[in-house]
Amino acid sequence: MSIDTAPTASATALDATSGTATRRDILHRLLMTLGPILIALIIAGCILLAVGVDPLAYYGFVLEKGLFSPLGIQQTLTRMAPLLFLAAGLIVAFRAGMWNLGGDGQFLLGAVTAAASAPVLVQIMPSWLALTFSFLIAMAVAMIWSLIPALLRAYQGVNEIITTLMMTFLGTSLANVLVKLMFRDPSTTVPQTRTLPVEDRLPRLFETTITSGLLLGLAAIIIVHLVMTRTAFGLKLRIVGANPRAAVHAGLGVSGLTVTVFAISAGLAGLAGAVDIIGVQGNVRADWNPAYGLAVIPAVFLARMNGFAAIGFVFLLSVLSIGGESAARRLGVPNHFTLVLVSIVLIVLALAEYVDHRYNQSRKA
Amino acid sequence: MTGLFSEVFLSALLFGAVTAAIPLLLAGLGEQMSEKAGVLNIGIEGMMLAGAYLGFVGAFYSGSLWLGFLTGAAGGVAVAMIMALLCVRIGLNQIVIGIALTLGLEGLTALLHHFQFSRSYPRLPAADATIIPLLSDIPVIGPAFFKHHLIVYLAVALVFGMGYLYRRTQLGLNLQAAGDKPAALDVAGIDVIRTRTIAVLTTGALAGLGGAYLANVGAGLFIPFITNGAGFLGIVLAMLARGRPVWVLFGALLFGVCLSLTTAMQVAGINIPTDVIQMLPFLAVMIMLVLFGRRASLPAALGIPYERGAR
């Protein structure tokens, strides 16, 4: 597997296949990733010191709960499943030069449709078939939801940042309305959907609590990566992303490709919602919005839209969020600190990439 | 008339609409300036939160709302300085840094609030209104529009100030050029980086002020994540307004009415989930986009960092 080693800081869409990965390149990238993370941890540690928390104890706890304890690592890997689907969807869109910032709305609608359909379907058909149908329905709903921004962008040239942001606000509210009015479980007082029985959810891997959704997520992101880098279809999308006008002159049906990209991207976000519900949560509570999408966007950027690098960043994100949640319960540091930490990591990584790029340039000159 | 459409209810509804609209207006005006200058400022949500928290802390400990507004604006500027340094001067990706700043400030303000106030949510006394004579005596409209805190009138005046700035001044033209054709501005001997930095810092000040208003006047207290997407709404307003400050005002009022309607419905005990009403402004805007979308236009160099001699 080739790892993207092109030294350009600007994420051009076409550099994915360039370069054969030598061991030194990989080492360099690893260093350029771990170094900034260490710096970010130190900066965030200063904030912890300022509010009177021992940073070493905190980080130790986060690492232990998110990475080194058997239960923690299982939770971390489980958390990765929806994030991987989201990242896969974003890779398709971003490589094609389309800013699908509506991931959270698509995610929630996928989650709600899966939560509404799965408990009903499992009663009338075998479990595996029911779950497959739920996945497909969730994907279809998210795809339809993305149709308005897609058509507006494809045929009217309306900026998709604004439309997808609007649709994500709409989608979040609509998901709540659906939970409260249409799919509400009549047997509980709290507004939530019917709960999918644990035995009907996605099977867990071996003897662990890790959801098999993880494998689906890994498959999704690797397939997306290969399609984008190794197929004619992927090349077409990257041309549209690199230069839409050139793509028109090259005879590509840009409008059609635009709608396709939105459909794939939103469909994967819908699957992310479904995998979180069918694999982990079992139901959707009213006002549930984990807002995974917003955190995954910068991670995908930092991975330079490379699927394998994105897996690494998603893993990091999961460790931090699972470890942070445990620390919130045990050390009294609110979970919000995770947001600060993630933010600092992202900024320092972006800066490091810039410095590295500058260094390479000056060495070449 | 009685019930829902009584005079008192209507003027309270409109009063609430103005109160809800002001933060959106300030954020929208700020974002508009950034976008004009070619910087897509997604960190504005974070700037508003910084403004809301520091504005609240300032007002809470000094007892002066005006000092609160000042610290709020300063908070917004502080975040904007990071954005200007990373995205304008160094030229890092604006979307990555913008989202990172928003996430970071969401976390940081919630964290600081936790350690400062623990689980208590102290309230500020209600802001005293500046009552405009004569106009405030008009039924319904008077109490709704002319009994607000002084800063509300200043914010509305700013709309026209901005209009003047963009149409009649050198700086206004420079801002426009920085977004449409930065290379031309550079050739004309004007520093693109500085022009864009001015725009981003102004955005920070306005967003911070908007956040401070939201916390100090709108809510009277700070709660984590208080802005709840107001910054993103500001981005939407700025993009819809196509460079015209007046349209930001209209848009902000439209959203304000819908937000106010949400509260009013709850008070009136009408049994519709608030989510349905919250969808209204977005639905309205989406319909507008479907109908008039073709005419929406954005600066040519929006989101592209400027590097001298890059092409």
TrEMBL record, chain A:
**InterPro entries given for it?**
ABC_transp_permease (IPR001851)
Coiled-coil region: none
Q: Which domain of life is it from?
A: Bacteria
Primary subcellular site in the record, as a coarse category: membrane
**Keywords from the UniProt entry:** Cell membrane, Membrane, Transmembrane, Transmembrane helix
The record's annotation in Pfam families points to: BPD_transp_2
Location in the cell: Cell membrane
Q: Name one GO molecular function term.
A: transmembrane transporter activity
Instruction: Provide one Gene Ontology cellular component.
Output: plasma membrane
- Membrane topology of the entry: Multi-pass membrane protein
> Which protein is depicted?
ABC transporter permease
Q: Which species does the entry assign this protein to?
A: Mesorhizobium jarvisii
From TrEMBL, chain B:
InterPro entries (alphabetical): ABC_transp_permease (IPR001851)
One CC-aspect GO term: plasma membrane
Keyword Electron transport in the entry? The reply is no
Membrane topology (UniProt): Multi-pass membrane protein
Keyword Amino-acid biosynthesis among record annotations: no
- Cell compartment(s), UniProt: Cell membrane
Gene Ontology molecular-function annotations: transmembrane transporter activity
Write out the entry's keywords from A to Z.
Answer: Cell membrane, Membrane, Transmembrane, Transmembrane helix
Q: Which PANTHER family match?
A: ABC TRANSPORTER PERMEASE PROTEIN, SUGAR ABC TRANSPORTER INTEGRAL MEMBRANE PROTEIN-RELATED
Q: What is this protein called?
A: ABC transporter permease
Provenance organism? Mesorhizobium jarvisii
